Request: fold
Amino acid sequence: MHKIYSVALNLHDHNTYDGSFHNQRERHTRFKHNLPYKAEAYAHQSDILNPGDYRLNDEFVKEYFKRDDRVFAFTYTYGGIRKCKDELFSTILKGHDEILDWEPKKLLDHYYKDGVYYIDHHQSHAMYAFINSQYEQSDILAIDGIGSKYRCLFFDKDQNAIDLSDKLPIGWLWNHMSNLTGFGTLGASKLMGLVGYGKFEQYFYDIFELLTSGPIIEKKQEIHQLIDIHKYGKENLAHTLQKWTEDKIKEHVYPLKTCDNLCIAGGVAYNGYMNEMFTYHYDNVFVPPAVGDEGQALGTYQHADYVLNNNKHLTNTYAGIYHGFIANEKVDYKEVAQAIADGKIVGWFQGRSESGNRALGNRSILADPRNPDIKDTINHTIKKREDFRPFAPAVLEEHYKDYFDTRLPSPYMSRICKVKVGKSGINRVPGITHVDGTARIQTVNKTDNEKFYKIISEFYKITGVPMLLNTSFNCQEPIVETVDDAERTFKRTALDLLVIEDYILRKW
Reply:
């Protein structure tokens, strides 16, 4: 049995993992989109990395990577090696900078000779999704903006890879359109928030076709010269880009189907409209919680463990460090639910933090979804962000079909679907409904998160509505990680209550 330690060089979060610890670097540094290329690491044993230890130093390399019984699994984000000389590779290379021109596998084979397992960036994405899906067989779509020499790989049920990079440069285009519209290269999720506000514009569609025909990377500098945002509107650009995305998926991915299950991973898998579309082409669709580069070290570990040890090592949705404390008395869930029903906005801090970029009920802000004004209130007084940014409904799994037009549960807030209205045409939950009548839903069951299920259930008993508005617990900052983070954000925003484990904090 091989002991496997994995490292990924990525743009975003830093992970240390022992089966219990899963640290995302920006949550600890408290800087959003902390861009310097850092290493993220996954280790199977708890004595490998201490939580918050972001530097893989000489002693670490010497002690843990150069042993006969251990395998070093490795993946990287395109360009990460050159940017990472002050991190892992400064200790590995020992001055051999010329090796940076090599492919990663050659680099590591040169240094270690044995015990190196190189995994392509998109293979890492794919395995993270596949293993955690628990499907016996599945098609897998690994798709993002960059990562390796690939942008998109499709794996059939026998795990044969098909390169769709030239046909589906979806992530590349979203990244650059996001930058063009002022949201920055990493602001594609903000651009997606405008989809429901726009309409189809042939002008944009034709430009997308032009930009993605032939070698596209060379056309990067042409984008600003080609597109007239002011005349045709960024909201129409967003709407048309979503239509173009779905058209390309139907053209190039749908015909490749080999079974009834689909796993999706990579940064583009945060596109909830796309994910929902797939549920009408596949019987089952799985999108993991840490779907982007923040899950790379986990996927790299899982790939190596599966191939070398024939293990399917599952990760936990709530895998962060435990920062809470034990109270002497229990929270009155009815009291908290009643406060929400009365218009109060609640910070909710429970257990270990979530994997990935979505707040799934352990680091959440909760409010009444029936209130049509709640979106503006939270955006202006707590989140301090753009007016068009929407919120998600966290709905009891047994009731999601009563309110939402979708076929499958969505436990990781990964799909966008239509909100149902009653025969009278009245929408009972306007607080979580996008301007186009959709919502990015999270289905909650008792097994996955008992406390979160309980607070929603109490709200259901009071109001007859089996859901709460759920958004990430932050204010122009990374999602809170520690108790101190939660208290600081509570004090400087318009939150009314803060529930930390079994305690309730109130403002005087």
